[in-house]
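Quick one: structure tokens for this chain, please?
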Amino acid sequence: MSGTFPAGGAREALIDRGAIEHNVRALRAAAGSREFIAVVKADGYGHGALTAARAALAGGASRLGVADLAEALALRDGGIDAPLVAWLHAPDADFAPAVACGIEIGVSGSAQLARAAAAGPAAVHLKVETGLGRNGAAPEEWGALFAEAARLEQAGRIRVEGLFSHLSGTSRPDDLAQVARFREAIQAASAAGLQPRIRHLAATGAALDLPEARFDAVRVGLGIYGLSPFEGRTSASLGLRPAMTLRAPVAAVRRVRAGHGASYGYTHRAAAETTFALVPLGYADGVPRQASGSGPVRIRGARFRVAGRIAMDQFVVDVGDAAVAVGDPAVLFGDPQAGAPTAEEWAAAAGTINYEIVTRIGARVRRTVVG
């Protein structure tokens, strides 16, 4: 790991574009020869939406997915012309700008379908509720929704490109129950005269472990960034490479006596004479305060833990007698194959999930694309 940091930028996330490409190829192979929808919402899970989109397409993704229209329009403005679907909309969302630039609209009910048709002709993906309890048309609404979609399609005002839902990932029986309900939705759509080209249900976990959920396409987010959706199963065991490395140069080194406190509240006091190293990353940068006293950090090839409370802009590491110097890279997480701690370890330290660790990295942290 190089010790060179961008001028004026103490906080840096290295984004390995090659890792994202690799992960898409690996996940496509694992899921079989189906259409691959790469999810690049939330600024590409914190990796940069344009970077993630370009890498995913280079790795073989055939379509991109985002949550909202603003994300989709930003990708179009960035030069991404691949098929693109957005599925979570405000009640007053204006579909016209998205439809005008070929963005496909995820539709969760009759009101959204009417607005999409009014902005059309629009390509839509009809979302059905199969048990997650979020958006999507409920089973008792399917008949009316599908009949209206068929009427609008025959009138040339929409094209039903897709039918989709989302799994809870609670257990295999729960997911299979949702698969069965999704099959019922497919049959109901067919009975109404609809033949959506892309039926998609599986996210990363099901793309890897639940063949029954794969249908025409898989819709993968977390996995393309090299993170595992499974507790107790590492990214390496799945053939994936983490794409983000979060690091900062040590900003100060201080030799202290036994009993000296570290950070607010003195929740950590030096057990003996030791060295404190200061790392300029804090909860304003997305480093979870809940990991105070436990988050892992690698400096000069050795592992340490955050000492005391993580502050807004910085935290302390008690490095003992290690020869740590100002400017040494302090790596919070990255690829374990390169010796870095993992996002999963930070998630465990903070009592959360790896999704949150990468997506919460803030705007002060410069993204540097490598690979």
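The chain has a mean pLDDT of 95.
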